[in-house]
Amino acid sequence: MTAARIGTAVAAFAAAAVGAGLGARRPRRRAATGPQARMRTPDHCQCGQELLTVGRGRHRVFWLAGAPADEPLLEQRCPNCGSALI
Fold this sequence. Notes:
Helix content is about 25%, strand content about 15%. It has one helix at about 5-25; strands at about 40-45, 50-55, 60-65.
């Protein structure tokens, strides 16, 4: 190998090592998952029951107002009057 090729190889290796080192020092971003990471918007049933929702249409999930994020309603019916929520 010639001196020019060796110099080019060393420079490429050094650039790769620096790039890898900078990437390792960056803080990793966690993906926001679960209902606690999403904004729950207020909604109301016809009877006045306050609910919180995430999503749209048939993909919407409902919670009673004040309920923990890990306790959504299992049925898409109002627990107060029984009417359909969608």
